[in-house]
Design a protein that fits this description.
33% of the residues lie in helices and 31% in strands. It is of the alpha+beta class. Strand 1 and strand 2 form a beta hairpin.
């Protein structure tokens, strides 16, 4: 993989040329900024920017005014190669708070395993209805210790309004959900993206996460996608490296609360 070429393709297709990722969401291009307004339950924030030392502060202030007028918190998704070089400091000075840094990792679908081999006693359940969505959010809250109501509403909206652009799966040990994950398919691009992979503590290290990656890879391959992309946490990064994903950039969510 030519990392520079793939990163440039990712920036062009998934950030600068982004499309709304769910029902009710819209993407707007204002000056040097591409932002998404997420509707009732979707993600909201800045996806891409083309700024320099002379334009950055004004662009940041414009986004703060815009989302504050809507009464909504929003995220500026900053990548390590974004310009100007001090954009992170400018965001902090404007009142944004950084969340933990992640790593943008990408792999070619053709190079990834698609044989789904969960550990003994575990079966994978595709998520197609509200009962399955409840299992996804139950696992997410146990694995990450965070409220998952927004993810629940977003996944319900996607399954109801755009089911061809999302795939979710739950790993079940008997009747107990122990891991879950989802994937978003981005029509008109070369990328499908992996999200929300989480496993409850007592089931980590047994191969469940790898099985969920293979399950989603097979779906991406069936739909003709060339790349899988993930914003990897420190926990998932080593597993993804072993599977064949390569790091392309760091990415840090900067969140503004009005």
């Amino acid at each position: 993989m030519n990392r520079d070429e793939v990163l440039a393709l990712f920036d062009r297709q998934m950030r600068e040329g982004a499309r709304a990722d769910g029902p009710g969401a819209r993407v707007e291009r204002v000056g040097g900024v591409v932002r998404q307004v997420g509707g009732e339950h979707g993600w909201e924030g800045v996806l891409w920017s083309d700024l320099d030392e002379a334009t950055a502060d004004a662009a940041i202030a414009d986004q703060v005014r815009y989302f504050t007028a809507l009464g909504r918190a929003f995220e500026w998704k900053l990548y390590g190669h974004d310009r100007p070089d001090d954009l992170a400091g400018r965001l902090r000075a404007a009142g944004f708070a950084p969340e933990p840094e992640e790593t943008l990792m990408v792999a070619e679908v053709r190079d990834l395993p698609t044989a789904v081999e969960p550990p003994e006693g575990v079966r994978l359940r595709p998520v197609t209805d509200p009962a399955g969505v409840d299992l996804v959010t139950e696992v997410h809250e146990k694995a990450f210790g965070t409220d998952s109501s927004r993810i629940r509403h977003q996944l319900l909206d996607q399954l109801a309004g755009r089911p061809d652009t999302v795939a979710a799966v739950v790993a079940m040990a008997g009747e107990v959900p122990v891991s879950s994950a989802r994937m978003e398919l981005h029509p008109g691009t070369d990328f499908a993206s992996l999200w929300g992979g989480g496993t409850v503590a007592e089931w980590r290290g047994r191969g469940v996460y790898r099985a969920l990656v293979a399950f989603r890879t097979r779906i991406a391959a069936d739909h003709g996608y060339r790349f899988l992309q993930v914003d990897a946490s420190s926990q998932s990064r080593p597993i993804l490296r072993r599977l064949g994903f390569e790091p392309l950039a760091t990415t840090t969510p900067y969140v503004y609360e009005p």
